[in-house]
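Lecture notes, unit on binding sites. The following record was shown on slide 14. It pairs a sequence with 5-bromo-uridine-5'-monophosphate.
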Amino acid sequence: MTKEQFVLELQRIGAIKFGSFTLKSGLTSPFYFDLRDIISFPYILEGIADLLVEKIKDMEFDVLTGIPYTALPIASLVASKMQKPLIYMRKEEKAYGTGNNVIGKFKKGAKCLVIDDLITTGASKIETAEAYERKGVVIKDFVVVIDRSSNGKEDLAKQGYKLHSLINLNEIMELLQNRNLISEEKVNEVRNFTASISKPKKVKEEITNLLTLKLISKIKEKKSNLVLSLDVTTQKEFFEILDETGSEIVMLKTHVDILDDYDENFVPKLQEYAKRQNFLIFEDRKFADIGNTVKHQYRNGVYKISDWAEFVTVHMVAGDGILKGLFDGMENRSSFVLARMSSKGNLINETYSRKCFEIARKNPNVVSGFIGHGKDVEDIKRFKAKFPVGMLLLTPGVKLERGSDAMGQQYITVEDAICGGADCIIVGRGIIKAKDRKKEAKIYRERAWKEYQERI
Ligand code: 5BU
């Protein structure tokens, strides 16, 4: 198969599409390549494999891999044709908290050539390479079927990787245009799109969510990134701890339903403290039901959370209807979405986190950011890099030292969290179980603030 035949076949089976498509990055693209279905057309799969073999036959490598799912059957066929061993990494296990398992046999230090179907920005290639490198596999080269990126080759080169491709976007457009398979107008649209993303504009961080702005300004005013998680079961202890720590915190996080002696005096007293000690109120209710149910859970019942909590936490598992249920008709209320949890073995994966970002991006006036955690600074940085513009990261599972508890909670340090990108740390037992809670709260605030100053 020639490159020209290959492009025509892709066009024929609908693997090249023109229209309006939302990319992972949130950008709207006038074209889309989807090579997933080529496995149903053996002669196309075979043709691509032959073209790839031709491309890589003189390259030096010990093992081959394809990035699941689309590139895995392609790489498998190429490996078979070249009689090279194949390895791959389970896609699901790329999620935080589980560790990456490489399937197949390889020796530590093996040179691996990575095959993928497409390159758009290069970011996911770098993540893949890093994951393999952590397992002792050496990655230097990537081969993609289609290079649809603007600067992918350069971006990968900056990180020390070489990109090879069978064909790029311009060649595809030219080929289709020569055959009159695409209009002049479409060609221009595609050109304008690629030109616009190749010169990344500095996106102005325009935050419209008033509560996000309020939290940011209070962080600066109190020089505090500390959110205290006051998980105690009596009002006496609750307000005693608040007396000692309120001046150090920017926001107080409650689990109101764990109080044994909740009564109608609790909320007015809490509000009086919030005013006097100048902190915001955040009920970690973790709403997770359909819109109509959460609407009542938020407004009604014993606690009437919407009356007093400026922020609440939300699980997006039920879809964006939850935001309508919670916030339609509400003013001055916002949420943090659980995009990653700190507990060991939690079921959240990268795809889920990404979907949370997508929904949040569409609802900036009621989502202020995300609750998120990570195994180390780099992991949190990668996570934060995917946030919609202007959204904040609050990180729980924080103590002065790394560690864990007996029920799966995992702790990273104050510095790990803030250096990775947390705007606030959420600390519970690190402070409330301390001998001198006042002193401990001050240490947490100061350490977080120092790291935050260095980061920004
Ligand atoms: P700790 O005592 O610092 O472990 O308390 C952490 C608090 O943050 C506690 O109230 C949890 O319910 C909350 N939390 C968390 O620990 N991890 C998460 O992923 C989320 C919330 Br979401």
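Take-home: The domain at 204-455 is CATH 3.20.20.70 (TIM Barrel).
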